[in-house]
Amino acid sequence: LRSKTKVKITFLVILVGISSMLAAVVTDHWAVLSPRVEKLNTTCEAAHFGLWRLCKKSIFIVEEDPQGNSCGPISLPGGKYHATSDLTALIFLFFPEYNISAAAIAIFSLAFMTLGSMCLLGAFGKGRDYLLRPAGMFFAFAGLCIVISVEVMRQSVKRMIDSDETIWIEYYYSWSFTCACAAFILLFLSGISLLIISMPHMPRNPWETCMDAEPEPMD
């Protein structure tokens, strides 16, 4: 494959990574929390949250959960929803600093992703192959930032579950969390691929030095 074809394929992979990243950042299904349900015909309060808000749902339990004594599932029809849409409301989670940190790191990831996209689009112009290297670095940094955000969120969930101040005792990670992990893999690997593509080519014969080797044209 010629370099230009490789860049186009990498660009398509990056588009999927960007879509996964945006889906993870703007949605509220990173983790689902559930309290223990001791008896039937009672109301319990499950919750799911993301980087920006917490959504609580009151569910009236009429059947025993075959997988345990948890409240839910969260997708159960009916019930009353209550959403908090600002960062200060995350104080309800008792450990807001973790969620605010995860959100701030995700913003850095979005910034790196934007810069990488600008460099990559510019690299398609004639004689601008040099922009592939900064584009690769920006996308790799974006992937690293989102995986750090994922780890911060994981630690936040664990501390909430282990705390005696919260009612939730069970949890699982939902599809927004999966999107964030997918975005890390796609963006980081695509960034490394762009860096490799932008590297100078090896000499064609033993008498040709690396400095004398002509870069392969993209067109």
Automatic annotation (TrEMBL):
GO terms for biological process: regulation of calcium ion transmembrane transport via high voltage-gated calcium channel. Keywords: Calcium, Calcium channel, Calcium transport, Cell membrane, Disulfide bond, Glycoprotein, Ion channel, Ion transport, Membrane, Transmembrane, Transmembrane helix, Transport, Voltage-gated channel. The chain crosses the membrane at residues 12-32, 100-124, 131-152, 172-197. One of its GO terms (cellular component) is L-type voltage-gated calcium channel complex. The keyword Transport applies. GO terms for molecular function: calcium channel regulator activity; voltage-gated calcium channel activity. The keyword Cytoplasm does not apply. It is a multi-pass membrane protein. It is found in: Cell membrane, Sarcolemma; Membrane. Gene3D superfamilies: 1.20.140.150. Component of a calcium channel complex consisting of a pore-forming alpha subunit (CACNA1S) and the ancillary subunits CACNB1 or CACNB2, CACNG1 and CACNA2D1. The channel complex contains alpha, beta, gamma and delta subunits in a 1:1:1:1 ratio, i.e. it contains either CACNB1 or CACNB2. Regulatory subunit of the voltage-gated calcium channel that gives rise to L-type calcium currents in skeletal muscle. Regulates channel inactivation kinetics. Belongs to the PMP-22/EMP/MP20 family. CACNG subfamily. This is Voltage-dependent calcium channel gamma-1 subunit.
